[in-house]
UniProtKB/TrEMBL annotation:
<dbReference type="InterPro" id="IPR020843">
    <property type="entry name" value="ER"/>
</dbReference>
<dbReference type="Pfam" id="PF08240">
    <property type="entry name" value="ADH_N"/>
</dbReference>
<dbReference type="InterPro" id="IPR051603">
    <property type="entry name" value="Zinc-ADH_QOR/CCCR"/>
</dbReference>
<protein>
    <submittedName>
        <fullName>NADPH:quinone reductase</fullName>
    </submittedName>
</protein>
<dbReference type="InterPro" id="IPR013149">
    <property type="entry name" value="ADH-like_C"/>
</dbReference>
<keyword id="KW-0521">NADP</keyword>
<dbReference type="Pfam" id="PF00107">
    <property type="entry name" value="ADH_zinc_N"/>
</dbReference>
<dbReference type="InterPro" id="IPR036291">
    <property type="entry name" value="NAD(P)-bd_dom_sf"/>
</dbReference>
<feature type="domain" description="Enoyl reductase (ER)">
    <location>
        <begin position="10"/>
        <end position="325"/>
    </location>
</feature>
<dbReference type="InterPro" id="IPR013154">
    <property type="entry name" value="ADH-like_N"/>
</dbReference>
<dbReference type="InterPro" id="IPR011032">
    <property type="entry name" value="GroES-like_sf"/>
</dbReference>
Length: 329
């Protein structure tokens, strides 16, 4: 089969290879998928950069956890009725070597979710890390109807979906953006109020909008960098759900202040979400897809041989929306 892989950590143009690779066989409880698309996410590119130093101990890695395709074969323990299903895939390259950036991918049957006929394979490649992370961030601590949520980086891959999940569930959403284009995407997703996080009076703008009411929950893409201002706008007993802290990777916490505010800090990592939470997300995603309730934003689509360029785009932090690799010509 044709595939992309890396055998060393480093820059995408230096370590990513494409060519012929041995196709997998589906094991017990697995399905074999002929991949149509593969989603490239920051967590995938960070692995290529060496965020898990033992990742290559088992051999070369075919990257990417998300994607979409058609089931061509099943292993023992899986119904043959699944053959021919259009599916979206999540968590393909987690604690294993072979991800979705290949013509074929064998995964646990439960990680291949039926994709409605009306939904494209390109959209299917967006549904894993971005949509499931957003779902967990919004709903991990209970219903949000009537609550005020502050979502940082609302134009980002996760933030864009978090705004939509929160609005669908009846929340008031305040979000941050750094320019007019990103503000447009936040409003498109349904945000009630957009504030520039670079503004000196950001906190005052938020509290003016709420009439002085502090927010109930924060969903944060830059925990360390945003913490000081977040503490000024979150209520006592509030929740901060965070899935990234790139600018300040090892934040120092004002423990006493946070303790006396009785805050809950929830760290979100999609791979290790409880299985019940994954299933809840899948059920809500399926309903949203069938009812056409979610907007999906695809930034760029690359052919497999240009996967290094797709990775470089993610590494530079450029663009808006999901980055997709087409597996088939």
């Amino acid at each position: 089969m044709k595939a992309a892989w890396f055998e060393a950590f480093g820059a995408p143009e230096e370590v990513l290879q494409t060519g012929e690779y041995t196709a997998p066989e589906p094991g017990h409880g697995e399905v074999l998928i002929r991949m149509k698309t593969s989603g490239v996410n920051p967590s995938d590119t960070k692995k290529r950069q060496g965020s898990f130093q033992n990742l290559l101990d088992g051999g070369p890695v075919i990257p990417n956890s998300d994607g979409a395709g058609v089931i061509e074969a099943v292993g023992p323990g899986v119904s043959h009725a699944r053959i021919g299903e259009r599916v979206w895939v999540y968590q393909a390259q987690f604690q294993r070597q072979h991800g979705t950036a290949a013509e074929y991918c064998a995964v646990e049957s439960r990680r291949a979710v039926k994709l409605p006929e009306e939904v494209s394979f390109e959209t299917g490649a967006c549904l894993g890390i971005p949509v499931m992370t957003a779902h967990r961030s919004v709903f991990a601590d209970g219903p949000v109807e009537g609550e005020v949520l502050f979502i940082t980086g609302g134009a980002g891959r996760v933030g864009y979906y978090a705004i939509q999940w929160a609005k669908l569930a009846g929340a008031v959403v305040i979000t941050t953006a750094s320019n007019e284009e990103s503000s447009h995407y936040c409003r498109e997703a349904g945000a009630d109020f957009v504030v520039n996080h670079k503004s000196d009076d950001m906190v005052e703008q938020v509290l003016d909008f709420t009439g002085g009411r502090k927010v109930d929950r924060v969903i944060d893409v830059e925990f360390g960098a945003n913490l000081e201002s977040v503490l000024d706008i979150i209520r006592v007993g509030g929740v901060i759900a965070t899935y990234s802290s790139t600018v300040v990777p090892e934040p120092v916490l004002p423990f006493k202040r946070m303790m006396f505010m009785n805050l809950t800090i929830r760290m979100i990592i999609v791979y290790d979400m409880p299985e019940e939470a994954k299933q809840e997300a899948i059920e809500d995603i399926d309903e949203a897809l069938r009812s056409n309730l979610l907007l999906h934003r695809i930034d760029k689509i690359y052919p497999l041989e240009d996967i290094a360029e797709a990775n470089a785009l993610i590494d530079r932090g450029e663009g808006y929306g999901c980055v997709i690799v087409n597996i088939e010509d």
